[in-house]
Amino acid sequence: MKPFQLALSDTEGTAEFFYDEGSPTQGSFYESEGAATSISITTACFDSFVESHRIPDFVKIDVEGAARSVLLGAQSAIRERKTVFYIELHSDDEHSAADKLLLQEGYQRVDFGDESVLVAAPR
After folding, report:
1. How far apart are the C-alpha atoms of 67 and 120, rounded to whole Å?
2. Residue 29 phi/psi, 5° resolution?
């Protein structure tokens, strides 16, 4: 595993990342109450990123409500159906969007026994 200092999204560029200094691991692209601090971060589309790296066999997505953006930036990789996605879900809207984006491309849900997690594997 190799870490990269960037956020996967559906756009290339930079974005503001908001967080509370008391809980710096609980941040979001969406400004919220208590998120008094922000930093500018580099964003990249998953598809652009894997052009210079290989498509991974497994991807864990836990992006505090932004899974839809990550998946929208991964449409080419999703269509290749080589990657298993494990997605931590933070709302019903996020669950519906992730489910729709993966299932319409031929993925199947894997029952993991946890409503807050979507595991999708290629058929």
Report:
1. 13
2. -75, -10
| Cα 64 to Cα 81: distance, rounded to the nearest angstrom | 24
Q: How big is the chain by its Cα radius of gyration, in Å?
A: 15
The rounded distance, in Å, linking the Cα atoms of 20 and 2 is: 27
> Considering the entire predicted model, what is its pTM?
0.85
Kindly tell me if the per-residue pLDDT of 117 is higher than 70. yes
Choosing among 2.60.40.2310, 3.40.50.150, 3.40.50.2300, 3.90.190.10, the CATH entry for 7-122 is 3.40.50.150
CB 72 within 8 Å of CB 104: no
* Amino acid, res. 116: S
